[in-house]
Amino acid sequence: MSELHVIGQIIGANGFPNNSLFCKWGIHAGGAWKILSGLKEGQTQIDNPELDDMSCWAHPIDIHFATKGLQGWPKIHFQVWYRDSIGRNELYGYGYCHIPTSPGIHQIECTTWRPVGTYWEQISSAFLGGGPQLKNPDLIYDGSDRFKLKTQAMGVIHLELSIITRNFEKYGVES
Q1: Model pTM?
Q2: Is 132 a member of any domain?
Q3: Of 48, 113, 108, 106, which Cα lies nearest the Cα of 80?
Q4: What is the pLDDT of residues 159-173, one digit of tens each?
Q5: Which end of the chain lies in a sparser environment, N or C, as judged by fewer CB atoms within 10 Å?
Q6: d(Cα 99, Cα 72) in Å, to the nearest integer?
């Protein structure tokens, strides 16, 4: 079987309205992909920077896959959350990006978005906090129904990923 090893980190995020942020992440791959080692989801710590607008997480990612084909190439998806001064968590954005297909070190910027909701949900959100969230989190990386959503752009997540491929040519998998 061909193998893909992803080693790196979620460096942090910037461009969000507030900076006390943490991130939930996960990796989704097609049915032909099998995880040999590593975690396919996790959560960073909260960072509340005082001098910079960049929330730094430096959260490690280390996952090893085996596959028989390229269909369903892995994607990494994110949920960025804000924690206010009294401990409430508010969703600030969703995002996803494909794991790079070429071996080497890659600097990736993943843009994020969040649902806007109806006019009344926007007013409620302004006074009470919170806001609309996706009922089905698969919409983050599966664009089949996402075009129906009204969204607004949020900040950017920064990643550094090292990609190692093994036996792709030996088994006839062309990248």
Answers
A1: 0.87
A2: no
A3: 113
A4: 999 999 998 888 776
A5: C
A6: 11
Tokens of 139: 């919409």
Range of the domain at 27: 2-115+152-166
* Domain annotation covers residue 135: no
Find the DSSP H helices in 104-149: 119-128
In a domain, residue 121? The reply is no
Sequence-ordered list of residues with C-beta below 8 angstroms from that of 39, at least 6 positions apart, any chain? 62, 63
For residue 133, being part of any structural domain is answered with: no
Structure tokens at 168: 């792709």
Which neighbouring-strand residues pair with 1? none
Q: CATH code at 46? A: 2.60.40.150
Residues in the chain: 175
pLDDT tens digits, residue range 89-123?
889 999 999 999 999 999 999 999 988 877 777 77
CA distance 26 to 118: 28
- What span, in angstroms and rounded, lies between the C-alpha atoms of 164 and 152? 35
Number of domains the chain is built from: 1
